[in-house]
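Supplementary notes for students who missed Thursday's class. We covered one full example, reproduced here. Read the sequence, then the structure, then the short commentary at the end.
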Amino acid sequence: MTKDNAREAIPRHMLQRLEEATGHRFADLQRLDRALTHASARSKGGRDYERLEFLGDRVLGLCVAEMLFEQFQTANEGELSVRLNQLVNADALAEVADELSLSDFIRIGTDVKQLRKAHQKNLRADVVESLIASIYLEGGLDAVRPFIRRYWTGRATTATAARRDAKTELQEWAHREHGVSPAYAVLSREGPDHDPMFTVSVSVGNLKPETADGRSKRIAEQAAASRMLVREKVREDD
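Structure (token representation):
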């Protein structure tokens, strides 16, 4: 894509909105356009956000870990890890995407527009990470750190930020209360290869199983474990 085409893909008023929301003035509009483009919408020979998402995920993890290290000076490694996982998961990222109104900017194909809401959540989360990578590549940590702290500092202090991951909590509860380990099973896999959706069930002994969807088996397992914990009143719903 040429620079002119990149400018056409991101109209000036839209670019201004995004820069105000992120606090960053983007210099490379071609890369920014790529950061906002899902694989289903890329042109022939074009590129999408997947590589940027990979980098952004690591940058986000580093910056949030740094923030938590400073903010919770008496927390041990286990607590910091739990807080980190809750702040960089798809739910937290999708919330940030909504604050940024990223749905107005993301380019997706017609087939993806018809997918279930759970797919859309993960897609929005991915674009937040690719956006982080774009900022990082233009200005390094000094440029991306203010953006991350702007949207994550408040979240780090919420009560739910310290919640343990659902699979670990369910495993310990199942052993303690029922003397068994949770059993997970993949019930189905749907969607295109670049954006699959898994349906997973979890069962504990003779209890009624719970099911959940997720973009990966791991995400679906976590969601199913969380549902069972809520149902059995081991934890409160978010």
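Commentary. The radius of gyration is 19 Å. The first helix runs from residue 3 to 9. If anything here is unclear, bring it to office hours.
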